[in-house]
């Protein structure tokens, strides 16, 4: 199967687009006429430049307002088409997309359209060119692929085929099963795009809000399953008109597209194994079974401050790395590694960002499969020289300069703590009831949210929630959850649009660091709060007003309210399932810990409390500055 992407999907001038598309691994491009016309160089040169990047031109597009015109416009349209055929000959491509007419003078008529296409097909045949006819969702008379197919069928010409574009079909709510009765060899080309479910004008939606398959809400997989069932064997191409993508990093968008396309086609293959997809086999989405460790980069005094803070939280220094300046802090199933090395990945992270989480270790079904799937989806494996007696733990470069390690039991990698660390002999007496990582919260710029969501949902067996707005006194932060089906791994992705929000300031001050807070679980939040207080822990203070409001929203006993009030514990309940949480004060430029007690059946994150938490953090920041910063 040839993978392809329309040049319109990527930002930059044509050479930059080609660079980015080639680097991401596609086989070809749809050249958007605009990209060719704005380029300073003739068609033969452009064709050469594309082929020099190892790419082929899978499609030339679009050719507009062709069919059903009255004379003399009809003849003019035929002349116009032939000039495009000349350009195509020089570019070196043999397929052109004709989108259904929006011309006010277009007469309509299925047979008239079929006759026009057949007549142009006759001319195209002399040049070895194939015409692909696409129903734009807003076409004047033809706006449904079933009508476009009827036109192509009646044109009955070997050089005239149908172009299917998932946006136009799914955007109009046309059932994908209607594709299954179209012969695969009459489908000239297939374009894919997803889009968020927003109720708006079709043209506007299409030109500004398309996104990569899996990033939106359309059933692109169902569409593609239907296409593959026809026996279609041509290129599968992304055609993404998106305002944000047009203005962002070309390479990153191209890579996201490639990731989405490979993951989609793999899903198609797995859902209907009867219809082959000609792509190398890749491991299935990997089960993510939780956070195995979190690694902080911190040196010198900052490392001491962080260690002292971990001790306050009831962690004990359980081990020292055999060869490196790395400490393992542990409490039950929470492992926090403090890496003070002056070389390697952690040192780079420290130099760039100061104290930060530079590495996330995930517990997965199979570490090898995770890296194999991640590589097939375009992630680079991460490698660092291993010292004597060290395990080679599979890892990849995540997004935004992060590293992600994968630990599994099957390959014995979960022995790393015994193998690489020398026990310090500290006992477990200090523990404060923290059992495991409940969730991680990663902060990013709003623009990067689709990327991160796609990263998690294509690599792991994780699903995404819908996006919600979190109100910060100084702006909106968008929040999206990605989580494994059993809740073993939960990550909230928070997208900041301005630097004035708490999340935005964290990003700005830490140069794009990602994990802003870590939520640790306890089964007895009052006991934990007491144990922490005894160790000198200071919770984020929550104002009286919050508790007065809580009393009006929930039926809580006065005693419970007063215990929550004195421990600064926030409360939420959904359908009888309860969630209690409190926060540490900020450290290291805006990071913080959260302690949660998740009642059975509660699947949220205390979202209704987020604005109060943020306001409290901001208030404290203004009055006292950030402790440990
Ligand atoms: O928005 C458009 O005009 C347009 C053009 C060509 C396409 O293939 C398409 O899907 C949309
Ligand atoms: Mg299209």
TrEMBL record:
Keywords: Lyase, Metal-binding. Its cofactor is a divalent metal cation. One of its GO terms (molecular function) is 3-dehydroshikimate dehydratase activity. CDD domains: HPPD_N_like. Pathway: Aromatic compound metabolism; 3,4-dihydroxybenzoate biosynthesis. Mg(2+) binds at residues 439, 517, 594. Its EC number is 4.2.1.118. It catalyses: 3-dehydroshikimate = 3,4-dihydroxybenzoate + H2O. A divalent metal cation binds at residues 134, 165, 191, 239. Residues 290-409, 436-585 form the VOC domain. It is an enzyme of class 4 (lyase). GO terms for biological process: 3,4-dihydroxybenzoate biosynthetic process. Catalyzes the conversion of 3-dehydroshikimate to protocatechuate (3,4-dihydroxybenzoate), a common intermediate of quinate and shikimate degradation pathways. PANTHER family: HYDROXYPYRUVATE ISOMERASE, XYLOSE ISOMERASE-LIKE TIM BARREL DOMAIN-CONTAINING PROTEIN. Belongs to the bacterial two-domain DSD family. This is 3-dehydroshikimate dehydratase.
């Amino acid at each position: 199967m040839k993978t392809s992407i329309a040049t319109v999907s990527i930002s930059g001038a044509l050479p930059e687009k080609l660079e980015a598309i080639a680097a991401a691994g596609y086989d070809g491009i749809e050249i958007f006429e605009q990209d060719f016309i704005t380029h300073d160089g003739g068609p033969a040169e452009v064709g050469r430049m594309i082929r020099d990047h190892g790419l082929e031109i899978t499609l030339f597009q679009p050719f507009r307002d062709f069919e059903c015109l009255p004379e003399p416009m009809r003849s003019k349209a035929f002349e116009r088409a032939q000039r495009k055929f000349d350009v195509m000959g020089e570019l070196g491509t043999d397929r052109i997309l004709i989108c259904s007419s929006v011309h006010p003078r277009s007469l309509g008529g299925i047979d008239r359209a079929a006759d026009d296409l057949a007549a142009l097909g006759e001319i195209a045949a002399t040049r070895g060119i194939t015409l692909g006819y696409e129903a734009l969702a807003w076409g004047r008379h033809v706006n449904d692929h079933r009508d476009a197919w009827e036109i192509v069928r009646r044109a009955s010409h070997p050089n005239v085929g149908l172009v299917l574009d998932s946006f136009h079909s799914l955007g109009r709510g046309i059932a994908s099963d209607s594709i299954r009765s179209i012969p695969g060899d009459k489908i000239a080309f297939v374009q894919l795009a997803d889009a968020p479910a927003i109720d708006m004008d079709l043209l506007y939606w299409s030109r500004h809000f398309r996104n990569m398959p899996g990033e939106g809400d359309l059933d692109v997989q169902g569409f593609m399953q239907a296409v593959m069932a026809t026996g279609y064997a041509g290129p599968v191409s992304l055609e993404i008109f998106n305002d944000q993508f047009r203005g962002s990093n070309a390479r990153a968008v191209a890579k996201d597209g490639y990731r989405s396309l490979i993951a989609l086609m793999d899903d198609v293959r797995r859902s209907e194994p009867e219809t082959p997809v000609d792509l190398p086999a890749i491991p299935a989405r990997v089960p993510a079974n939780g956070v195995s460790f979190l690694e902080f980069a911190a040196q010198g005094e900052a490392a001491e401050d962080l260690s002292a803070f971990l001790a306050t939280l009831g962690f004990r220094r359980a081990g020292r790395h055999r060869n490196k300046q790395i400490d393992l802090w542990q409490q039950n199933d929470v492992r926090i590694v403090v890496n003070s090395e002056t070389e390697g990945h952690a040192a780079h992270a420290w130099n760039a960002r100061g104290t930060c989480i530079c590495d996330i270790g995930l517990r997965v079904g199979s570490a090898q499969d995770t890296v194999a799937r991640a590589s097939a989806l375009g992630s680079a494996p991460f490698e660092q020289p291993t010292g004597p007696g060290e395990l080679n733990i599979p890892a990849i470069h995540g997004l935004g300069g992060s590293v992600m390690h994968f630990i599994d039991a099957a390959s014995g990698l979960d022995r790393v703590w015994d193998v690489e660390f020398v026990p310090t002999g500290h006992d477990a007496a200090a523990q404060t009831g923290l059992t495991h990582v409940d969730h991680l919260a990663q902060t990013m710029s709003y623009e990067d949210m689709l990327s991160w969501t796609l990263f998690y949902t294509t690599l792991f067996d994780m699903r995404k929630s819908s996006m919600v707005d979190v109100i910060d006194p100084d702006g909106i932060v968008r929040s999206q959850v990605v989580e494994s089906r059993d809740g073993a791994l939960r990550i909230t992705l928070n997208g900041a649009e301005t630097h004035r929000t708490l999340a935005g300031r964290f990003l700005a001050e830490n140069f794009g660091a990602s994990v802003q807070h870590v939520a640790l679980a306890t089964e007895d939040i009052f006991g934990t709060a007491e144990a922490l207080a005894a160790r000198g822990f200071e919770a984020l203070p929550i104002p009286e007003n919050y508790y007065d409001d809580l009393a009006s929203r929930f039926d809580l006993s006065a005693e419970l309210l007063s215990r929550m009030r004195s421990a600064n514990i926030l409360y939420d309940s959904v359908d009888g399932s309860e969630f209690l949480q409190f926060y540490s004060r900020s450290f290291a430029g805006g990071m913080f810990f959260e302690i949660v007690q998740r009642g059975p059946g509660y699947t949220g994150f205390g979202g209704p409390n987020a604005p109060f938490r943020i306001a409290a953090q901001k208030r404290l920041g203004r009055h006292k500055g950030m402790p440990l910063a």
